[in-house]
Design goal:
The complex is a heterodimer of chains A (about 375) and B (about 325). Chain A is α/β, with parallel strands linked by helices. Chain A is built from twelve helices and 18 strands. With about 325 residues, chain B is of the alpha+beta class. In chain B, the strands form two sheets. A four-stranded mixed beta sheet of chain B has the order 1-4-2-3. Classes of the chains: A alpha/beta (about 375), B alpha+beta (about 325).
Chain lengths: ~375, ~325
């Protein structure tokens, strides 16, 4: 990987957790390790993201929460397992730049203990499928060589038959997955973009080709794959550029073993714009016509989104993705115009993806 | 720190050096009200002064009072000499700070001056963040401290505009990250058009976005014939010019949205709606729905309006949003 942890901070109450001890054991010898009461917030501003300090701490809140979708747009009913926040990659468009009030990489060491409680709640819920992901507030695999999430989370999935777990990443850190013997109901997903956006805007992330090589390895090893083109960004020759990525997908991946693929055009909280302008003054990702959406986030005007989704859908169908392509946080009329159908509401979308999971993993 | 040991004295105004001196925090003020007050009731609180290493008097607090007295043609002032009780410059500055804090509100440049001087008097950054910034109604963030210190690098006219609340702090924040040339052009236009706070930030955002998108310098964009024609149009007053320039920039920044909005407006304006009924839509055309509003005083009234709308064939010409 292109990043390096130079300093680790272990919060005092985190020391007792085996997860923390294991993680410290994996740190390079050059890494300074300290114990503290907690990092002060003072002095932090969003422009000073700290990507070289790893903070290991016990998270006091709930680790599993539904995706904070908004009622104005269709949400897929995903559950977020909050295993850590912030990410060693440095994508110019990343919403996390304006989302958290702590600058460094944070990993929650009480995840194993919390999973026990979560498991009991899931068991009692009676719900058929829980689609759970860890890639919303951090990259699911970027820190895996140190913190070994791929050793902890699959055993949780194995114990709960109604759980489908998605690792979402831009990295090629798949060693942990390959050494894990449990692979049922685990989806390994890659976030993709056009090759030029990946090169110019996804700082520290491997190229699209490298990501797809890793995806092919996982697919050959029996893992079910997913993909996410999010954010789609309008840029010069975007059609040719995204078609290039789909050509690469065709080269590396069997579409029949891809469970789902999401599309989402770039959107951001208004406060993010200033952060992006300051941290990445040369970026062109803000050039498009962005307007306030019904949820308050800035998004491309509708015809741009519809054209991009329609184009992508057509190419993905040509590749072989007949079903499982869905839109992240879009309105029903955009679905209808881009795809020719709509799940109508969030429940409809959630059921659609649950059915995909039921079929893919032969859930009862 | 106790000022009781200070000695009252009459000081000739000409013995007080010109200029604000090392302890003053005042900036961008208007002396007229203070002059009027002194003319009516005199100086109620004597200024504090202290001898410096050269033996001359520095003003510890009361700079504006002394300026006002000079403006009124007075020759001497009753002061308190605090040299024996405030022996070091940091002590004198802290005294001046608290004296001002208790009696007035600081403008943003004054806050910047205070923070800068505190650092200059070797007050630790942590103490400034934890103790002084809250007193100035500022968040205890290092980023905010850095921003305020940078305000002092802005040109004098920009600082004065900020102190007088002619430009907003958001504009100042945008200015500190800008090259001098770009800042001067934007500031000149903000003044020329007398933009209000909302318009100022919109103007800067449009110009910035367009200049990045079109790879054109601010100066080139704002010297285009279309912009100058608005600015120089003798038939427009300042608010009209401001509105027209902003609209020009908005259309340039959002060409497809502007075209679609124009199409909707044209379609709606060709419908002869009854005066009690009106059609509305999301200005960003994000919601797919129009909204019909009918004002009525009773049911028969409502029924009559609905009948009139029912008979209005022009309604069928209203297009779906984004297709007009």
């Amino acid at each position: 990987m292109n990043f390096k942890i130079k300093k680790a901070v272990l919060e005092k109450d985190a020391e007792k957790y085996p997860f923390a001890q294991r993680a410290v054991g994996q740190l390079p010898s050059s890494c300074l390790v300290g114990v503290t009461e907690g990092l002060p917030l003072q002095g932090y501003e969003e422009f000073d993201l700290e990507k070289e300090t790893l903070q290991l701490l016990s998270f006091p809140g709930q680790l599993l929460k539904p995706c904070p979708g908004t009622r104005e747009y269709l949400c897929c009913g995903y559950q977020i397992l909050n295993i850590g926040t912030n990410c060693p990659l440095d994508c110019s468009y990343c919403i996390l730049q304006a989302y958290f009030n702590q600058p460094c990489l944070r990993v929650f060491v009480n995840v194993e203990q919390e999973l026990e409680a979560i498991g009991k709640a899931l068991h009692l819920s009676g719900r058929k499928v829980f689609r759970i992901g860890t890639g919303e507030f951090t990259d699911s695999l970027a820190l895996d060589p140190i913190v070994k999430w791929t050793q902890v989370l699959p055993s949780f999935v194995a114990e709960h038959e109604n759980v489908v777990l998605e690792f979402k990443t831009k990295t090629v850190s798949i060693e942990g997955l390959l050494s894990s013997t449990y692979r049922d109901r685990i989806v390994v997903s890659w976030s993709l973009n056009s090759p030029s956006i990946a090169a110019a805007e996804e700082h520290g992330a491997p190229s699209i080709r490298k990501r797809l090589e890793a995806a092919r390895t996982c697919q050959r090893e029996g893992y079910t794959l997913g993909f996410h083109f999010d954010p789609l960004i309008e840029h010069p020759s975007w059609k040719e550029e995204y078609a290039r990525t789909i050509d690469l997908l065709d080269h590396y991946v069997d579409p029949l073993k891809v469970i789902w693929l999401s599309l989402g055009c770039l959107r951001y909280m208004p406060s993010l714009k200033g952060v992006i302008r300051k941290r990445f003054p040369q970026t062109r990702i803000l050039d498009g016509e962005f307007v306030p959406g019904l949820d308050g986030k800035m998004r491309y005007i509708k015809p741009v989104r519809i054209e991009m989704y329609g184009f992508m859908k057509e190419k993905l169908v040509q590749w072989g993705m007949e079903s499982g392509v869905y839109l992240c946080m879009e309105s029903s009329d955009v679905w209808q115009k881009a795809f020719g159908w709509s799940p109508e509401n969030s429940d409809g979308l959630s059921e659609y993806l649950d059915r995909k999971a039921v079929l893919a993993f032969a859930l009862c | 720190m106790n000022l009781r040991g200070g000695e009252g004295m009459r000081l000739e105004l000409e013995k007080i050096p010109e200029g604000a001196g090392p302890y003053t925090t005042s900036y961008g003020f208007n002396l007229e009200v203070l002059c009027e007050s002194i003319r009516k009731v005199g100086v109620l609180n004597p200024p504090l002064v202290a001898r410096n290493q050269e033996g001359a008097f520095d003003i510890v607090s009361g700079y504006r009072r002394i300026l006002a007295l000079k403006a009124l043609g007075e020759h001497e002032v009753l002061c308190i000499d605090v040299t024996p009780v405030l022996t070091s410059p940091p002590e004198r500055f802290i005294a001046a700070f608290y004296e001002n804090l208790a009696t007035r509100k600081f403008n943003d440049i004054e806050k910047a001056i205070i923070l800068h001087k505190l650092l200059g008097y070797d007050v630790q950054k942590d103490e400034i963040l934890a103790s002084f910034m809250p007193l100035l109604y500022l968040p205890s963030h290092e980023g905010t401290l850095k921003l305020y210190l940078k305000l002092l690098d802005l040109e004098e006219n920009v600082q004065k505009a900020l102190a007088r609340e002619e430009i907003s702090m958001n504009v100042a924040k945008a200015f500190v990250d800008m090259e001098k040339g770009a800042r001067e052009i934007l500031f000149a236009w903000i003044n020329l058009l007398a933009l209000n706070f909302n318009q100022q930030i919109k103007f800067i955002e449009y110009v910035h976005d367009i200049s990045i998108k079109e790879n054109a310098a601010f100066s080139k964009l704002l010297s285009e014939g279309s912009v100058l024609a608005i600015a120089e149009n003798p038939r427009l007053n300042k608010p009209q010019k401001a509105k027209a320039v902003l609209e020009f920039l908005r259309v340039r920044r959002f060409p497809r949205l502007a075209r679609a909005q124009h199409a909707v407006e044209s379609a709606l304006s060709s419908v002869s709606m009854p005066p009690e009924a009106s059609i509305h839509y999301d200005p960003y055309l994000e919601s797919p729905y129009y909204r019909l509003e009918i004002k009525f005083t009773h049911g028969k009234d409502l029924k009559r309006t609905i009948s009139r709308l029912h008979a209005l064939h022009e309604l069928e010409a209203i297009p779906e949003l984004w297709t007009g």
